[in-house]
Amino acid sequence: MSDPTQLAQWVRDARERSLGLVADLSPEQLKGPRLAIVNPLHWEIGHVAWFQELWALRQGRGERPLREDGDSLWDSGAVPHDTRWDLRLPSIEETKAYMREVRDRVVDGLAVDPKNRDLHYLVLYSVFHEDMHDEAFTYTRQTLGYPSPPTAGSAPSHLAAGPLAGDAEVPGGTFALGAAPDETFVFDNEKWAHPVGVAPFAIARAPVTQEQFAAFVDGAGYARRELWSEAGWEWRIRVEAEHPVYWRHDASGWQRRDFDRWVPLEPHRPIIHVSWHEAEAYCAWAGRRLPTEAEWEAAASLAPGAGAQAALSVGRRCTDVGAREPRCTGGRLRRRGRAPRRRQRLRLPADDRQRVGVGGRRLPALSRLRPRHVPRLLSAVVRHAQGPPGRLLGDAGPPAPQHVAELLPSRPPRRVGRVQDLPALT
Ligand SMILES: [Fe+2]
Predict the structure, then answer these.
(1) Do both 60 and 165 map to the same domain?
(2) In a domain, 173, yes or no
(3) CA of 356 to the centre of ligand 1 (A)
(4) How far is the CA of 48 from the centre of ligand 1 (A)?
């Protein structure tokens, strides 16, 4: 069961971040241009509060709607995206007052009903949803060239560190991919953990850097048809991509746009804001490929030098018995597909699932990231040297060419990785 005091703090934290991400923007900026890839921020901040009211207060606490017009304004499943600029929204101040009232009522509800597990789940759902929108607020500011968010803080020192060359060898084994039924919270597309065989492979120790990607660009990588998939080449031609979307070149060299400022390209900073197609073409140029989902999660779940025991200590034991198929011990997998009823009711609106992700896949919450997701945020491209072709991350269908905002968690992530027989990275 979740700690209601911690949950209340997360509710406050997420709301504070949401409000902070729009605090410095003018009414005109909060409306912004009508684009398919972003929402009007004025609408979006009300939406996160409405979503929390819907699930945590109305569903979880049985309360009546705070506003009669809430569903008609902020239900992302009912209000078409391109109409959100035309709505008769409450004023900015009224919207923020609504956000604060919902927050306070949820915190009060947790105090009044501290052992209600269904409420805990629904509050977590609303907090993770808000985290995703906080990510969206951030990439909207980048997309529209607004100033760096006042909540951004200073860049972590490791971004200024030198390159970390070389590959880590992962001998392979069995990885439990997905969420376990007894976890406090899971999203529907994480159900359920199942063993996946991972063949030996090698993966770059660190994300691809801007310097490395610039070599690809300078090497005519965007003009060499053979480096691109059919869909990738069609995308490149259609959007006239000649380099990463937020890059430009002048007499001094490459620069990147950091919100509303142009800065010289930091050579060892991980490349961000590239689409799946660009990542794939880079790998073809570098003689590598992108990792499969299982490969990526297995590699990201291991602490360098800590060995498999460290990963085992935080997860369920899963073993490859050498029989027809691997099994997880403890009978957990026998519950595969049988979700607790309260979870079966919950599905992210299609709007949210489609809009947030890399390669068409949903990204996890911003500030409560699980460790296996963090490196993916910081490295849209990961080099991969050996191993079987496997099923690549984007095989489920052509991904939306979406650029990824750089985001960092604000607190230590929760560990859920489960690796059995993968030895330490070397
Ligand atoms: Fe949403």
Answers:
(1) no
(2) yes
(3) 10
(4) 6
The whole domain housing 76 covers 4-143
As a whole number of angstroms, the distance between CA 368 and CA 93 comes to 28
Average pLDDT (195-205) is 90
Q: Cβ(270)–Cβ(162) under 8 Å? A: no
Report how far ligand 1's centroid is from the alpha carbon of 49 (Å). 10
- In one-letter notation, the amino acid at residue 13 is D
Residue 312, burial from CB neighbour count under 10 angstroms (0-12, 13-18, 19+)? middle
Please identify, among 113, 143, 173, the residue that sits at the C-terminal boundary of a domain.
143
103 Cα–ligand 1 center, Å: 16
Distance (angstroms) between ligand 1 centre and the Cα of 3 equals 25
Centre of ligand 1 to C-alpha 329, Å, is 37
Query: Which pLDDT does position 360 carry in this prediction?
Result: 26
416 and 270: one domain? Answer: yes
Same domain, 134 and 226: no
Residues 183 and 315 in one domain: yes
Is the previous residue joined to 192 through a cis bond, with omega within 30 degrees of 0? yes
Q: Can you tell me the distance from the alpha carbon of 311 to that of 416, in angstroms, rounded to the nearest whole number?
A: 9
Is position 154 within any domain? no
- List pLDDT tens digits, range 334-376: 222 222 222 222 222 333 322 222 222 223 333 343 333 333 4
**Spacing, Cα 196 to ligand 1 middle (Å):** 32
Alpha carbon of 385 to ligand 1 centroid (Å): 38
